[in-house]
Amino acid sequence: MRAEVLARRLKGLLARIDAACAAAGRDPGDVRLLPVTKYFPASDIAELHRLGRRDFGENRPQEADAKAAELGELRPLRWHLIGRLQRNKARQVARWAYAVHSVDSERLATALESAVAAALDAGERESPLEVLIQVSLDADPGRGGVRPDGLPALADRIAKSAELRLAGMMAIPPLAADPDAEFARLAGLHTRLCAEHPAATELSAGMSNDLERAIAHGSTCVRVGTALMGERPITSA
Ligand SMILES: *Cc1c(COP(=O)(O)O)cnc(C)c1O
Question: Given 34, 53, 65, 188, which residue has the most CB atoms within 10 angstroms?
Answer without folding.
Answer: 34
